[in-house]
Amino acid sequence: MSFKEVDTIAFDDQKPGTAGLRKSVKRFQTPHYLENFVQSVFDAVPALKGDTLVLGGDGRFYNREAAASIIRMAHANGVQRVVVGQGALLSTPAAAHLIAQEQATGGFLLTASHNPGGPDGDFGIKFNVAGGGQASAELTDRIHAISQAIERYWISELSLPSLDETGQHEIDGMVLDVVDPVSAHADLLEAQFDFPRIRQWLSEKPERFVFDALHAITGPYAREIFCRRLGAPMASVLNSQPKDDFGGGHPDPNPHDAAGFVQGFRKTSGAELGAASDGDGDRNMILGPHRMVSPCDSLAVIAANHDCIPALAGNLKGVARSMPTSRALDEVARSLEIPCHETPTGWRFFASLLEGGHIRLCGEESFGTSSDHVREKDGLWAVLAWMQMMAARGLSVDELLEAHWRRFGRHYFVRHDFALNSEQGEAVIQYLGKQADQGHPDTESPGHLMDRFHYTDPVSGHRVENQGIRLSCPDGARVVFRLSGTGTKGATLRIYLEQPVPADGDWRRDRQTVLAPLAQKAAEVAGLKSLAGRETADVII
Ligand code: VG1
Ligand code: CO
What we know:
Blueprint: E1 3-7, E2 21-24, H1 25-28, H2 33-44, E3 52-57, H3 63-76, E4 81-89, H4 92-101, E5 106-110, E6 122-129, H5 137-147, E7 152-156, E8 167-171, E9 174-179, H6 183-192, H7 195-204, E10 209-212, H8 218-229, E11 237-238, H9 259-267, E12 273-276, E13 285-287, H10 295-304, E14 319-322, H11 328-336, E15 340-343, H12 348-355, E16 361-364, E17 368-371, H13 379-393, H14 397-408, E18 410-420, H15 422-438, E19 449-452, E20 455-456, E21 463-464, E22 469-472, E23 478-483, E24 491-501, H16 511-525, H17 528-532, E25 539-540
Parallel strand pairs: 3-4, 3-5, 4-9, 10-11, 10-12, 14-15, 14-16
Antiparallel strand pairs: 1-7, 2-6, 5-6, 8-9, 12-13, 16-17, 18-24, 18-25, 19-22, 20-21, 22-23, 23-24
The protein binds alpha-D-glucose-1-phosphate-6-vanadate (VG1) and cobalt (II) ion.
């Protein structure tokens, strides 16, 4: 026999969060830690036996070792074919696409997304199912239950061919296909947009576009798509060399973590559209010369201008946003007379709606936007959507935004993150939960309503509870409170603040100024001072 059965003991911390299992690299390096989780997936998804599995990651530290272990375990668990990206690399949207294209039963995505990498950083593993979407809440619960009682796993003892060259190998009855990680995804994106039109827009003024890959996975994708296929100068893609520690940076495309890029972009003469993506290529940040586009607005603007995007034109059908994402999208859906779904945070809820054919466009305030071309969020898709809108309408980022606000009004939006310890996080959520259960925070705030957000998936019928606490104010303002499910230490409290103003209201103000009083109120309602000794947020996005 070319594989062995290994005795193991269950770990009690393998419950996946918002998007897979994320822990420090050191935790993943604990003997049997990765293998226990991977075997739990094989046990939970018996259809993997005799079928195809996709594998790849964002290239962070430990990516290669983890990929090699998973290939060996796939062999020992009877997988018939493994399709792996060259160098064990695949961006998250590219992996999701490959799962669908290869009609695989599922795939392992090795990523901790925007969390820092390197030996002292984080690692993660995510299992996506047939079609490419993230494991459902039900399947995730099953995997977790198995991981709590696991006693053995199987792993091959065979040596593996190099993953650095593309090609097909046969390993003791299993096929290993090492494929180019970029081309299939680039082809998919090319089919969604009018590339000749974007190419022309870029050729008119090559310096108008700058993209920062933050030394993460999107570098090679951006070079292929923006430079080779669309003719942008090579110099327009910054930090395009992927590094296993992301060059020491925090690969999160937001004005806090990518502040250096934002400042540099503003000083670049002639630059009109700036963009960046995260560690695994599923997030996007869109910048104009004078302002960042709030991801909530970006989603709404794309919905309102979907006719510019060939794959969406004339047939948007339905849209969705995560619950904390501002309701700017709802205004557009109302005017288009299409359904707008409100889901819990995390892409797996969208994947179900996309698979069920309910929606064609969706997004989250956390810099995630995508369409039904793939079952994950897709950073480069969003960048192309903005290029396409600018090219088709002949408008700048600012002009597109202002035209939108003038028509639909504006939903001012800001998120405040508080890094708390686990006890403080729990205490704050419990305190808020008690108020929600009474329906309102205090008698001095008439008309204010508090509730907990629960969700029933209309496709699977599966219900998930307690996905955040909402405070709704009589003037339409809203605050959402929830704990992050992607961190690896302590508890991050996220407070989402939203203040709508109508089309004839003042939508020209600074969002921080507009939302300062609501932020103050939110901190009071959460009891942040007494329960956590805190008054100001650690990060404001
Ligand atoms: C965060 C975001 C959420 C996103 C998730 C995964 O989750 O808020 O919107 O889907 O990250 O994104 P949380 O639980 O920390 O708030 V990624 O780019 O890490 O796959
Ligand atoms: Co990501």
